[in-house]
Structures are given as structure tokens and as C-alpha cells.
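Researcher: I need the complex structure. Ligand is ISJ. Inputs:
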Amino acid sequence: MSLVDFRKEIDLIDQELVQLLEKRFLIVHQIGLLKKELGLPVFDPKREKEVLESKGKLITNKEHLAYYESIFKLIMDISKDMEK
Ligand SMILES: C=C(O[C@@H]1C=C(C(=O)O)C=C[C@H]1O)C(=O)O
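Model: Output:
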């Protein structure tokens, strides 16, 4: 495959990522409103640990685990910001 072909594939994957992130952030916003209503804190360390562990199990190439963890930590940090 050529560089152009590979980049076309990446563009399609990125498009899906954006759509999925938009979906996630919409739900995060709802969670933020609910937490405000219930007087719950934005940060839930137990849940974040569960998110990281469950996603860790899905990763086929365990050598990439640290990269996924960084990505999910960043997504969760941004999510917490969006909840505020
Ligand atoms: C979205 C939530 O709020 C925060 C963000 C999380 C996330 O992005 O997955 C998880 C836990 C919380 O720290 C939640 O509590 O589910």
C-alpha cells in the first residue's frame, strides 16, 4: 500500500474516533448534570481504575498497554473537565 492509501485508512479510523468521542462526551455531560443533582463529586477514582483495568483486558498487544493507559487517562481528564 502507498502512503496515500495508509493515510486514507487513518482518516477513516479518525472519523470513527471523533464520532465515538462525541458520543462519549455527550454521556459524560449527562453524568455531570446527574452528579450535580445528586451532590456527587466529579472525580470517582474507583470507577477510573475499573475503566483502565477493563480496557486493559481488551488490548491484544500487551506491549502497547502503557500507550492505551495514557490515552484513557487523558480522555478521563478531559471528561472530568467537561463535567464541571
Ligand atoms: C464519567 C464519570 O466521571 C469521571 C470520568 C470518568 C470517565 O471519563 O470514564 C470516570 C469516572 C469519573 O472520575 C463517571 O463517574 O462515570
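Model: Summary of the prediction. The CA atoms of residues 49 and 73 lie 10 Å apart.
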